[in-house]
Design brief:
3 domains, six-stranded mixed beta sheet, two-stranded antiparallel ribbon, 18 helices, 12 strands, 46% helix
């Protein structure tokens, strides 16, 4: 049996899970706030804005690798593509899982028993080297100690409850947790901290978690406040439904034969020859997608981000209409502002996979992997496709240019406000030069909120969504002007 293999533990209801490390040195290498209002963009031309740059962070978790970025991206596609041949019909779920790995987010899979979700997680994680993998199955009797480690007796003697987290979920890079919602609410709260905040909090103990990506599987969702919060923390959701058509059943027979009817067989020595992707490479790509690597920024013009939000709003509207038309008691899917914001990271990942450094309208189709439940209600897929078509047909070139101009105006207004606060000069962009020429002004110091407002009022949108953006910007300009006039320069910071 190959020494590089990641093994998944016996997952009987009370089996004690453990982390299994991958120690093959030859595979090891050196180890947003996303836009919701169109507010922080630089105008670099009269007709277009300099694309939006995500906030810059200090690269802490990984250093630049001595491998071309294009080679790492190609490696991702080459390493994971064969999984689709192993499991018939798992193509969309595989794409979604790759996005989860690229963004460092988590995937929640709903399915009845016997649909190969465990095998899918094995095949996915087995192709990542240098990772500590945690696997377990939860039950109503699952104790916190089984996930987070036993309590330190010596610390307990001093009155402190501290878990020894070495070799537990807290210490894992990748995790697969089955029967996720069988756990009690106390355990789910602790899991929520690790899966979302990447920190283990219990009592007085607060400890960073190493989790890169977790996959949770469940047959159902318990309707409680805790479980609803947990579901919302999963950026990616999917459903695996049993398929009984002849082709799929025959493909399952072939897969069954390859794995001898036991997913543990995937740990056979033949797996040692599979190409694998170092976790360090995934971590580096995640840093790029998150905007934390200055030399590999993925940009997006304001109109693309605006269209992203319009598309999601349209999808919600169509789903609500469908619920009413069918007299369904089920509410329309809830999409939180958190998901609106994080969907920008998905767009970055989509652009990266296509070898691009800028998000375009072509990447908007990939939002389905965040907005809909892959493999779930067919109406979700239809509504998303309709929303995408409507958005692309409605927000055309003229509207996109108007959005970019409005975004440039808001950026300039922010700079004017900053000038009142600090006395710093406004950056000389082509958009500013255009405004100076338009109003016959001499220098940037002559530009006021009134000038910006007059420019905005001259934008004449024909689409309601752009009209709303314009109205919101006019309101913001008035707010800025009132603050400056009222405080006479003594602004509240």
């Amino acid at each position: 049996m190959g020494k590089d293999l990641v093994r998944i533990e016996d997952r009987s209801p009370r089996a004690t899970p453990r982390i299994l490390s991958d120690h093959n040195p030859k595979h090891l290498t050196r180890s947003l706030e996303p836009l919701m209002s169109i507010a922080s963009h630089q105008a670099e031309s009269e007709e277009a804005l300099e694309p939006y740059l995500p906030p810059r962070f200090t690269l802490a978790s990984s250093e630049p690798l001595d491998i071309p970025l294009e080679a790492i991206v190609a490696e991702v596609q080459e390493v994971f593509a064969p999984i689709e041949c192993e499991l018939t019909g798992f193509g969309p779920l595989l794409t979604q899982a790759i996005y989860a790995l690229l963004t460092g987010e988590n995937l929640l899979v709903f399915s009845p028993p016997g649909t190969a979700k465990t095998l899918f997680a094995r095949l996915l994680f087995r192709r990542i080297s240098g990772a500590r993998v945690f696997d377990t199955q939860l039950s109503k009797g699952t104790l916190a100690e089984e996930l987070f480690g036993s309590v330190d007796i010596e610390q307990m003697k001093t009155g402190r409850v501290i878990h020894n987290t070495r070799g537990t979920l807290v210490d894992a890079d990748l995790a697969f947790i089955d029967e996720f919602f069988d756990a009690n609410d106390m355990v789910l709260r602790a899991l929520l901290g690790i899966f979302h905040e990447r920190v283990f909090k219990k009592g007085s103990q607060t400890q960073p978690a190493s989790l890169h990506t977790g996959i949770a599987a469940a047959n159902y969702v318990r309707a409680t406040g805790v479980t609803q919060a947990v579901v919302d923390r999963f950026l990616f959701r999917a459903t695996i439904a049993p398929a009984y058509d002849p082709f799929t059943l025959l493909s399952i027979d072939h897969a069954f034969a390859r794995h001898h009817g036991d997913c543990a067989a995937s740990d056979s020595s033949s797996a040692a020859d599979e190409r694998r992707l170092p976790l360090a490479h995934l971590t580096y790509l995640k840093e790029i997608v998150s905007g934390r690597v200055p030399e590999h920024q993925i940009t997006a013009p304001p109109h693309v981000l605006f269209m992203k939000n319009v598309l999601i709003n349209r999808y919600r509207h169509l789903m609500a209409q469908h619920r009413v038309a069918t007299d369904s008691d089920e509410p329309a899917p809830y999409i939180s502002p958190r998901t609106y914001a994080k969907s920008r990271v998905l767009l970055n990942a989509a652009a990266l996979l296509r070898g691009h450094r800028q998000v375009t309208c072509d990447d908007l189709s990939q939002l389905k992997y965040v907005i809909t439940t892959i493999g779930g209600d067919p109406e979700e897929s239809r509504s998303f496709d309709d929303a995408l078509r409507w958005t692309l047909m409605t927000i055309r070139d003229a509207e996109r240019e108007q959005v970019d101009r409005l975004a440039a105006a808001e950026q300039l207004a922010e700079q004017i406000l900053h000038r009142f606060r600090t006395g710093e000069r406004i950056s000389c962009t082509r958009f500013l030069q255009r405004l100076l020429r338009l109003f016959g002004l001499i220098s940037e110091g002559d530009v006021t909120f009134d000038h910006v407002r007059r420019f905005v009022e001259d934008v004449k949108p024909r689409v309601d969504e752009v009209k709303l953006l314009k109205q919101g910007l006019i309101g913001r300009l008035q707010e800025f002007k009132n603050r400056v006039d009222y405080h006479q320069g003594y602004l509240i910071h």
